[in-house]
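To close the chapter, one final illustration. This time we ask the reader to focus less on the individual chains and more on the assembly as a whole: which components sit near each other, and how the overall shape emerges from the parts.
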Amino acid sequence: MLDFIKSYLTVIIINLIALILLLFSAVRSKSKTIKSLKIALKTFFRIFPTIIIIVVFIGFLLGFLPPEIISAVVGDQAGFLGVLTAAVLGSVLFIPALISFPLAASLLKGGASIMSVAAFITTLTMVGVVTLPLELREMGKKITILRNIFSFIFAVIIALIMGAIL
Amino acid sequence: MKDLNDMANKKQKQKKTIARDYIIMAAVMIAAAAALLVFPDKSGPVLNISKDYLIELAIIFPAIIVIIGLFSVWVSKETVVKYIGKSSGVKGIIFAIILGVLPTGPLYIAFPMAAALLKKGAKISNIIIFISAWACIKLPQELVEIQFLGIGFTLLRLALTVIFVVLMGIIIEKIIVFTDRKKIGVDKNA
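The assembled structure is written out below.
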């Protein structure tokens, strides 16, 4: 029992948080709670195909690519170039952040360095090549370009610091 | 009226994207099945790995989307706009981060909000911090990060991200204020 709790601590806490918030919401307003659950269901159907695609991709990534190859591209041997590669990949790809963490974990398991994984996740969320048109239209050229360039540079710096500490 | 049209368009577009995602998913699954038939010796490990990750996601995902749903209903756009619009200084920065971090929806609804705030005269730095926090430190996604990458990795990356996002907000504001002033100066001379 204790072992079970230990290995699933995060899972238990996340589910408890959701449950407590849900109860709290249900007590305050039934209609709002139902609306929340509807949004949750919609979110599920929207994100479900991406989950399946990523899970299949992870299976093939770890099943087919030997760790030496992953390690050579984004591993410790690849060094700074590997971090840059990961940062560029993260900027260009459009993977919902929620799903990017299992992918990042699989890369880490498959031989990628902590630095590269940190760079990948950070640019994935902070730099948005796919959302660029929308950002340009709403925020204007100057803010959009500055924000994305600085985000890229800072993501690489964050990754380097993380690599040094962890 | 224009807003209504806009919203209807957006909804339709979203439906199309979702349909497209399901088609891609089907194609990926067929391609994957074909590949595993060609390399039968790999099918064991590939399926096992996929199954493990799928299970790990399945045990947290319902909770995550429930949290997302609850926040998007209880914390309205109006609340966010109200708090960011009128606060400045350190308080403004903290509000921008907290309101960005709350799981109130996808990034594409943050941009119009940010644009509206800018027009209302909110500080550029706070808006940049708000968008960046919204994009990269959403509460539910951090829970997933802890699950897959560990609490140490997550907390360190979060702390660094907050520091650099604030720094970035301040730097970009300085650059924009500086270049705008120069432009106004040139216009006056002309």
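Chain B touches chain A through 78 residues (CB under 8 Å). Residues 68-189 of chain B form one domain. With these observations in hand, you are ready for the problems at the end of the chapter.
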